[in-house]
Amino acid sequence: MGIKMFTLSRLRSNVFLTLVMAFLGSTNPVKAQSNANASMNLDAKQQSIITIASLTAKGDLDNLEIALVEGLEAGLTINQIKEVMVHLYAYCGFPRSLRGLRTLIKVLDDRRAKGKEDTLGAEAAPIEDNRTKYERGKANLETLVQAKLDGPPADYAQFAPIIEVFLKEHLFADIFDRDILDNRQRELVTVSVLATIGGVEPMLHSHMNICLIQGITPIQLKELMDVVGKNVDQEKIDSAKKVLNELLESKKQ
Fold first, then answer.
1. Chain centre to alpha carbon of residue 59
2. Is residue 212 part of a domain?
3. Local confidence pLDDT in tens for the 253 residues of the chain
4. CA-CA distance, 29 to 69, in Å (whole number)?
5. Which of 12, 123, 244, 246 has the most neighbouring CB atoms within 10 Å?
6. Angle, vertex CA 109, rays to CA 106 and CA 110, nearest 5
7. What is the span of the domain harbouring residue 247?
8. Is-contact 18 232, C-beta < 8 A?
9. Residue 6: inside a domain, yes or no?
């Protein structure tokens, strides 16, 4: 069945007052582009990525062990799961990421002791790009939002210019240049983490919009909310669903 086309719309700069996605306040936003090849439902790997990201961000290590086993059984490689842990630290911090990685080590050791060998998977490809990290990061971000980022700096970037450098050079170059996960997978991780930690609705709105731009369907985003909702306080998931509903409603205007 066809997927509804989304056209370009304008995002208000005052939505983006928080770190990481605040920079989008200085750009012209983009509505989601259709993707005729997108599945209408999340597959097993995508659901595992969402659950692993959410439980890691929450710090629920007991249930994370179960989710890691399910992710490996669903076909995620060890390196893909490691990359989920690496990516999400940018949104919920090193402590959660490191505890997640240690939990993965435990799960792999336990499975190895039982004679189960899991697939390591591909490593990140070398970066063969002579542009500066800032230029690469800016280009990666433009690919994510499908818009040129040539507007005036956001208020936060004027107030603390170094954070803009860190965002472009580290998050969107160092991390997003790693091809172990694709952009859709990275955005599934990001939205899952933001919905789990709560209280970051402007950033959640921005990343949900990027999901749509990258070809994740409204149905898949609603399913993501259901998956995350199994492990998140009702107040947080209600807030996240409200953000999603408001975003999807804005696309109809």
1. 17
2. yes
3. 333 333 333 333 333 333 333 333 333 333 333 343 445 799 999 999 999 999 999 999 999 999 999 999 999 999 999 999 999 999 999 999 999 999 999 999 999 999 999 999 999 999 999 999 999 999 999 999 999 998 888 899 999 999 999 999 999 999 999 999 999 999 999 999 999 999 999 999 999 999 999 999 999 999 999 999 999 999 999 999 999 999 999 998 8
4. 38
5. 244
6. 85
7. 13-30+40-119+130-251
8. no
9. no
Distance, in Å, from the CA atom of 112 to the CA atom of 91, rounded to the nearest integer, reads 31
Give CA–CA dist 199/194, Å, rounded.
Answer: 8
Residue 46 lies in a domain: yes
What CATH code is carried by the domain that includes residue 23? 1.20.1290.10
The count of structural domains within the chain is: 1
For residue 1, is it within any domain? no
Report how far residue 142's alpha carbon sits from residue 151's, in angstroms, rounded to the nearest whole number.
Answer: 12
- Work out the widest C-alpha separation in the chain, in whole angstroms: 57
Spell 224-245 as b/e; 16+ CB within 10 A means b: bbebbbebbeeebbebbbebbe
